[in-house]
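Annex B.
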Amino acid sequence: MPLPANTALDRLRIGSAPDSWGVWFPDDPQQVPWSRFLDEVSQSGYDWIELGPYGYLPTDPDRLTEEVGKRGLRVSAGTVFTALHRGPAVWDETWAHVSQVAALTRAMGAGHLVVIPSFWRDDKTAELIEPSELTAEQWKHLTTGMERLARDVREHYGLGIVVHPHADTHIDTERHVERFLDATDPELVSLCLDTGHYAYCGGDSVKLIETYGERIGYLHLKQVDPEVLASVIAEGTPFGPAVRQGVMCEPPLGVPEMEPVLTAAQGLGVDLFAIVEQDMYPCPPDQPLPIAQRTRRFLRSCGA
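2-keto-myo-inositol dehydratase: predicted structure tokens.
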């Protein structure tokens, strides 16, 4: 049953992330310094942040705890990229990276690790890395590898993984997302639903929440400019250049409509992080703050 339109979205914990400040890499001269990000995300009225690319924020737990604490912030999750579809040969390298991020994530008191599949074309150069479709064997590597990752992350760090469908990766469209969910253990593997990426790839976030609600463990809030997206699809533009063209936009200017997504998520009856992420790498340093402030006001107007 749909919730009343005026329902307070009290099960959603709203935050933001370095991505909303144009941060995609641990170190890049086009990105704002980490201290400015922390200052401005706090100034915008958010309580929660993600770690972003490992190495962008300080990696010493004591220092990072001090820096976020004095700004009234807390950490909701860390993020890792994985290429588990390539099979057991990549496990040791994957685990070494995951362990670094997971250790810092746990030290910051967070409970989630956002896992993004590797890109099949480079997000900075748009160079084709591998085919966009996986073979049956690669799908098996991906799903069993993700379950192994979930077990090991839980056992060693006490964290749950949430897998992030993402443009230009092998988990992107509704078909791929459903195939992935149907092939993985619900007790181990949950989903980070990014509303912008899912719309970018043709998916319906409300439908996904209503169909696979028990698998939704985390949200990224994002919108897509439908006019720019139409051009991106028509021209086959890779994700990185599409972002530079402004394919991701601030709410409520794009799709999906945010209120029904938030209401559907509230209707699950569980506490969920809902982290604002507006891809806009690269961007002028003065651009993110006013967008973040407007977005936070908009989400409050929705009851979140």
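The first helix runs from residue 34 to 43. The chain has a mean pLDDT of 96. Further annotation is deferred to the next reporting cycle.
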